Amino acid sequence: MRFLLLFSLIFTIYLNATTIKDIKFDGLIHISPQVAKEMLGFKVGDEIDTKKIDKSIIRFFNQKYFKDITVDEKDGILTYHFIEKPTIAQVEIKGYSDDKKKDIKNIISVKKGDIYNENSIKASKNQILQYLEQKGFYDSIVETKITKLNKNSIKLTFSISKGEKITITNIHLYGSKDITYSDIKSNIVNRQKQFLGWLWGRDDGGLKVDQLKYDSSRIRDYYMRKGYLDAVVSTPFLRTYFEDYTADLSYDIKPGVIYKIESVKIKLAKPVIKTSKLMDELKLRAGRTFNIEKLRKDLKSIEHKVANLGYAYVKVYPDIKQNRKKHTAKIIYNVIPGQIVYISDVEISGNTRTIDRVVRRSVFLSPGDKYSYRDFQDSITSLKKTGYFQDVQITKKRVSNDKIKLLVKVKEAQTGSITGGIGYGSYDGILLSASVSDKNVFGSGINMSVNIDYSSKSLKGSISFFNPRVFDSLYSLGGSIYNNNNDYYAYTEDKKGANLNVGKQFTRHISGSVGYTLENTKLSDLDASLDPILYPEETTLKSAVTISAKYDTTDAYYLPRHGMEAIASMEYAGIGGDDKYLKNYYKFSYFYGLEDLIDYDMILRYKAQLKLAFDNGYLPINEKIYMGGLTTVRGYESNSLSPENSAGTLIGGKRMFCNSIEASIPLVESMKMRGLLFLDYGFTGDDSFDISRGGTGLGIEWTSPLGAIQLIFATPINDKPGDKTSSFEFSMGRRF
């Protein structure tokens, strides 16, 4: 070793022992002088010993901070000279897309702030190459470059040249029985290339090496869902042709035979519930074909029902007894309830703004309560539906045999905003909007807003508030004052008014409200074809009471994936004032997420609404029913579909029914942006549903920091000459 040779030269001149008078260190950065002295193995006052000095140098080198170490002595003063390895101040990735660079930095061994180490850099290069191979890129090249920033820091650059991507052209299922590639392809990740595979929604055949080992299990799982209980699927065999970077993928399959269920039994370790109650909703029953997916659902069903009784740590184990001669299976669910568990405490974290009690009032389990799985899940759903939080997690922490602590962790959403916007609608023209709002004022859960919207057809202003839990009770209170001016097709409406609503949450899913509206309306610029006797240009007063009920089991505020919402309301105008009518409104929405079924976050939605109006003396034209636009049938201008008079002027109807089918799919998950496909169809009329129109198209849904934004591109269906169609619309703040 160079430094040992150096010491032999330095110290051979010392024939007599020399006492150490002082010890100095030059060039130390990562180790303090105090720590360095403790590592020496000797101290001031000792005699100089070259062997001890050699050992101290080895100790310093073992810290991996130093590139070189030398020692000299003068008049009894020992001086250690250190040249430290440089620190990696920057790690740069070149040749890879910006949105994926973070993935690369997460997998490599070298991190910003590390000491330069050739072995770590070499390992990082190999990690990048392995990562690229897992993504299907072969013969990739990774080069490194060191750039000196200052005396003791460097920038490390990894330059990546992605190799060729392996494309799967054929997948063979050798030995498969009654099941083809087309049957299983939706269950596997590695798929063979389709014609025009580069198109969205088509399979490009790109090899994903990291998923190969799991695809065998996915194929076997598919067989077991079809009743092949003994199915065996080999590990995949990949034959790669490097001349054109294509590959054939093969699986050897021994499916066996289809099994039927002979019997299903439940064995309880202790009688905490009648087995008949656990059997009620089971998917697997005697005589049916075995299905592993239904077995899993049955396990969850049993577990949740027992957990609702307070057994938070219930275990359910399936015992499958096969009769290979008869090709039948007996299923026994062994249920071990454990102990009843009570809540010892509820700890809340992550709410830097929202008051603890606002979070706590949406948690249906309190200290002293017996645990319930239903209450546990409903608490998560309730917190998500407030709209105050981006994410909600509740975990159980066992503190004793019969006590658990609930840890509620929330990630707050941006609920307050000052916004301004500009847009364009085919009917309204240029649209300008400005608002100041907060859905969670001072973290209290109170919603307040001031809004102004302007277009060539309307000017709207409002101030509103809503407290969903007055004094943390089950009662709500809300109201608004507004001044709206709208230029409709056949008239201009100037509306000033105020409303007040009192509501109550009767159960977790059922609520109701009673509201009162006092409104002054002036109609002007009526179309010349409208009868002035039936449609006078005058100021009228509306005094109306609205009663509504709501049933809501959805799991989120803006983007529900499961559950339904049903609303029924009745508005009665005629408690004084000039308007005298009755309007009924019914709305139904159903949401079904497919992620658990197909491992893809697609959401299916069905929405329907029915409106009925009855003239009790005076039903003004502006209170009649119109169809068209974002909330009814897309592809037509807002409120452009209704009965017409003989001159073709819209006069509004007394009934409307419309419904929609939608499919929402993820586009850019990091931005919470999704794509939408939809089909709308609706009917309207006066005494019958004699006007029908449809619309279809696609859209973009974005849960942005400003709220829910939706962009719609629509094409009308069954449109008629003279219809006012619209190809683009947008909305903000509406539930998807």
What this model shows, in words?
- Helices cover 17% and strands 45% of the residues.
- The chain starts with a helix and ends with a strand.
- By secondary structure, it is of the alpha+beta class.
- The strands form seven sheets. A 16-stranded antiparallel beta sheet has the order 19-20-21-22-23-24-25-26-27-28-29-30-31-32-33-34, with no helix packed on it. Strands 9, 10, 11 and 12 form a four-stranded mixed beta sheet that branches.
Major sheet strand order: 19-20-21-22-23-24-25-26-27-28-29-30-31-32-33-34
Low-confidence stretches: 1-16, 420-427
* Helix vs. strand class: alpha+beta
Q: What is the number of strand segments?
A: 34
Query: Total number of helical segments?
Result: 12
Please give the largest β-sheet: 16 strands, antiparallel
For this structure, the CATH topology of the largest domain is Porin
Q: Regarding CATH, which class of the largest domain? A: Mainly Beta
**Overall outline:** globular
Write out key terms for the chains shown.
single chain, 736 residues, alpha+beta, Ubiquitin-like (UB roll), 6 domains, 16-stranded antiparallel sheet, four-stranded mixed sheet, 12 helices, 17% helix, globular, disordered N terminus
Can you describe this structure in just a few lines?
This protein has 736 residues and is an alpha+beta fold. A 16-stranded antiparallel beta sheet has the order 19-20-21-22-23-24-25-26-27-28-29-30-31-32-33-34, with no helix packed on it. Strands 9, 10, 11 and 12 form a four-stranded mixed beta sheet that branches. It has a three-stranded mixed beta sheet with strand order 1-3-2. It is globular.
